[in-house]
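BUG: 3D viewer hangs when loading the predicted structure for this chain

Environment: internal workstation, default settings.
Expected: structure renders.
Actual: progress bar stalls at 90%.

Input used:
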Amino acid sequence: MSFRTPAVLTALALALAVGAAAPARAAAACSDASGVCLSDDKAKWEPDASLSAKQLKAKRKGPACKVAFEIDGGRGSVFVNGRYAGTVPNVNLSLLPGKHDIQVRDGQKILAEGVLTVPKGGSLQVTVRHG
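Structure tokens produced before the viewer hung:
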């Protein structure tokens, strides 16, 4: 134990005593009926929808949005427009504004599937309820 440890513990105890809150999670538990919650009101989730081939090829313009995925109570794989994008909790994407086909799976079980409309710029937290 270093000589700094007591000072750090004292500072932590003092912060808790004066009511300093611990850092909050990026997204609260998802309670939406579709099982998908979004952190930005400009974003839109259409469950059980999919884009046509023409819509998938559409050119998207504008500044990209940073999109982070979280699975409440588990982990899974994220697919964007039919392509594997990564495994949650390590999926942080930069998506152009517009509509994107999204599928989140845990093995063979589909946790969420639909169309996500991404706003221009900024950041978006997508929380998917597991189970």
